[in-house]
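Sequence, please.
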């Protein structure tokens, strides 16, 4: 690259770097460019879509001008801090003598530990993200510190000095990870500005969420199946790079499967009355504007069962050898998307009424299928539901989300012969499967919890009597 010495010409160009769109991410893949060299852009205009290990995100440009150069083509994995686009902010002032001067390399900052999404086991894994060598890295400047990236996002001409790392002992940092708390947002009360365990617990105190007003689309139908790429004639195999969400899924699932001792229990239940309740709720004026389906009632049943069996809503803290009891429920719902299955969660689902829960489910799934789920929406889950029944599957043995201790799989609801009041009759029947961490949930607690969910679905009036 030619070095520019003409300061007036240099002032014409602004460079936009790959930001850290999640907490501690080190790279992202450019999925699509929305602009090309010569296009005019304005402050806040989306110029590209990128995929991280957590989600697909659209990036807005923080200044006005004309696109001078796209530094990387679509499909390229770029390190955080690398310049991805150069913009001429003073077009019409004469030809550019050369390309903008590359900024001096900034010292590599240690990537903070992040939280990554997973697939069946769905949720977020607490593990450090690792930097992967990028093709052509020998010609690109090293990644800038996150504060420098933020300076570019704010439209500043120079990079800010990175902020000091929050002061906290390793067990407190581990606690913050388990609770999904960013230590930078915690107010320290310890001596010398040190963050204590009490500070983290105070920051994790749930707040009542706003009631979503977006009507819910169907949460029962799986995402549209994308047509597979054509296979060349004579090809005997196809190699697919493991990256982005799929890479995070694989790492988290291996970690979960070989860390927590899984136990899975099953129960088959007559849900005929639940299906009748669903039909009645669809006609209820209080449920107008939201979609009602069996998953809504199942989610509410799980929340009531947690209230009766609070020990299920906990997590094992290996570093401190403690069981961390959660007094709130962030309910994860597995959602099929074109890029795979992700699990955003409904914050403080235990505080929501049935109409609020229905609206939250709709907004959550619609956002996920549009590929717009934010990393924050996938962090901090406490328990998960995976509805494998939408694919016609009877049951499964789901893997726990790292940081959680229970996951409920819901099988297909089918009309089957069933003994009802002493006679064999056709009834709506499904199979539930509960996987749990046997370190803190023993067989008695896990069985009671699963039995309570089944009892509510068999007699949904218990949503009132047990609430």
């Amino acid at each position: 690259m030619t070095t520019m010495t003409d300061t007036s010409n240099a002032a014409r160009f602004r460079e936009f770097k790959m930001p850290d769109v999640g907490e501690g991410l080190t790279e992202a893949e450019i999925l699509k460019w929305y602009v090309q060299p010569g296009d005019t852009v304005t402050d806040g205009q989306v110029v590209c879509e990128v995929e991280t290990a957590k989600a697909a995100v659209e990036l807005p440009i923080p200044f006005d001008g004309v696109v001078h150069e796209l530094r990387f083509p679509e499909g390229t994995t770029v390190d955080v801090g690398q310049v991805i686009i150069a913009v001429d902010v003073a077009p019409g002032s004469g030809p550019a003598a050369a390309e903008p001067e590359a900024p001096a390399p900034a010292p590599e900052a240690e990537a903070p530990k992040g939280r990554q999404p997973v697939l069946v086991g769905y949720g977020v894994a607490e593990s450090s993200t690792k930097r992967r060598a990028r093709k052509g890295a020998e010609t690109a400047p090293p990644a800038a510190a996150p504060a420098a990236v933020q300076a570019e996002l704010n439209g500043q001409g120079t990079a800010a000095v990175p902020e000091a790392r929050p002061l906290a002992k390793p067990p407190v940092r581990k606690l913050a990870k388990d609770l999904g708390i960013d230590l930078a947002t915690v107010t320290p009360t310890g001596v010398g500005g040190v963050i204590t365990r009490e500070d983290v617990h105070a920051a994790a105190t749930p707040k009542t969420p706003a009631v979503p007003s977006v009507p819910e689309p169907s949460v029962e139908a799986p995402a549209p199946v994308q047509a597979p790429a054509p296979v060349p004639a004579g090809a005997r195999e196809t190699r697919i790079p493991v990256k982005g969400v799929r890479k995070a899924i694989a790492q988290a699932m291996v970690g979960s499967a070989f860390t927590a001792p899984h136990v899975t229990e099953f129960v088959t239940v007559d849900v005929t009355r639940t299906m009748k309740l669903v039909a009645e709720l669809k006609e209820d004026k209080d449920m107008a504007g939201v979609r009602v389906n069996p998953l809504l009632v199942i989610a509410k049943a799980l929340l009531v069962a947690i209230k009766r069996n609070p020990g299920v809503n906990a997590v094992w803290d290996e570093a401190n050898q403690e069981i961390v009891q959660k007094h709130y429920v962030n309910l994860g719902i597995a959602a099929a998307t074109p890029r795979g299955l992700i699990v955003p969660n409904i914050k403080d689902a235990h505080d929501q009424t049935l109409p609020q829960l229905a609206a939250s489910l709709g907004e959550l799934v619609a956002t996920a299928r549009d590929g717009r789920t934010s990393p924050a929406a996938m962090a901090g889950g406490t328990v998960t539901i995976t509805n494998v029944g939408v694919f016609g599957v009877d049951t499964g043995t789901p893997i726990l989300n790292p940081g959680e201790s229970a996951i409920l799989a819901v099988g297909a609801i089918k009309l089957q012969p069933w003994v009802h009041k002493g006679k064999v009759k056709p009834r709506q029947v499904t199979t539930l499967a509960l996987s749990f961490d046997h370190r803190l949930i023993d067989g008695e607690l896990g069985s009671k919890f699963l039995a309570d969910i089944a009892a509510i679905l068999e007699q949904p009036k218990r949503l009132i009597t047990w609430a």
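Residues 1-7, 97-162, 207-225 have pLDDT under 50 and may be disordered.
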